[in-house]
Write a structure and sequence with these properties.
single chain; 4-stranded mixed beta sheet; 9 strands
């Protein structure tokens, strides 16, 4: 703090928060002293904010607090109490006043040296609060972005939609293949598509994601067994591309009027079964069947 009058002593009076504040202190012999201090707003305007600016910093206002911006460094959140305590530490480092110093300097030095800490912090807390009302609202630095051509925006939108459709179909097929009700060994492509688009599970995904998209992406999709993107149902071409990737190539049905998917191998992969495990599972099933003993034909001589 520089040694010059922050305000003219004759212009202050008790009760005017903008220009003066009375604080009671005690000297070394516990004799009460009355200090006429600058009002919190005046001290914020004449000392706190300019001092920060001289050091290359500025105080910014954020909801519920303060943020200190120093040059190009990342801004730091500052608690009002911590800033008041820092001001008190600064006052306590002031040199002892001389006869040539202003009444204001003497009062502020006395505030740091002799005023009991709770009372000093109460006053300095008001100074910080006044500084906050004077500070600018903090705004993140603006990043200049080149405009994206409309054709590129359309391309990105289509790519995002395709990704959502692909992941939704893939997630549904994984559930369908591992369901307790084992899917048929072969199924017509049109029948599989019909099951997908009319699936109550897919309808549940769409509704949940629409109601709370952020929660869906934050992990709610796991509770529903859905995709980790916002679900979207595409057209037949989109679905068949995923189904072919998951189930394998389709083949012609006898008579050549329909296309079929085989599900056996895909279900085995979805359940994580190896060929050996599959054979063992079939052997266990056969061993558990109550089959009649085979008849033995004997040759007669």
């Amino acid at each position: 703090m520089q040694r010059f009058p922050i305000h003219a002593p004759g212009a202050t009076h008790a009760g005017d928060r903008a220009t003066a504040r009375k604080v009671y202190a005690f000297d070394g012999d516990e004799h009460p002293l009355t200090l006429d201090l600058p009002g919190p707003r005046r001290l914020a305007d004449r000392w706190l904010l300019p001092t920060l600016a001289d050091g290359g910093s500025r105080l910014c206002r954020v909801p519920g607090g303060l943020r200190l911006q120093s040059g190009d460094a990342e801004p730091v959140n500052v608690a009002a109490r911590a800033l008041a305590e820092a001001l008190l530490v600064r006052l306590r480092t002031l040199p002892a006043p001389t006869p040539s110093d202003s009444e204001t300097y003497v009062s502020l030095w006395t505030l740091g040296a002799r005023v009991r800490e709770p009372a000093a912090l109460g006053y300095l807390g008001d100074v910080v609060a006044a500084a906050r009302t004077r500070a600018r609202r903090w705004e993140p630095p603006r990043v200049k972005r080149e405009p994206v051509p409309p054709a590129e925006l359309r391309r990105r939108s289509r790519a995002t939609a395709k990704h959502r459709e692909t992941e939704t179909a893939r997630a549904w097929l994984a559930v369908w293949l591992t369901d307790d009700d084992e899917p048929p060994a072969t199924i017509a492509t049109t029948e599989l598509l019909s099951e997908y688009v009319s699936s109550p599970l897919v309808a549940e995904w769409l509704e949940a994601a629409e109601e709370a998209p952020d929660e869906w992406l934050d992990g709610e999709h796991e509770e529903h067994g859905g995709p980790d993107v916002l679900p979207r149902v595409g057209g037949p071409r989109s679905f068949y591309a995923v189904a072919t990737d998951v189930l394998g190539d389709r083949r012609r049905a006898p008579g050549g009027r329909a296309w079929l998917y085989s599900t056996t191998d895909a279900r085995r992969r979805a359940l994580g079964l190896s060929d050996e495990e599959t054979h063992e599972t079939l052997a266990d099933l056969v061993a558990g069947l109550d089959l009649p003993a085979p008849s033995v034909a004997r040759r007669t001589a």
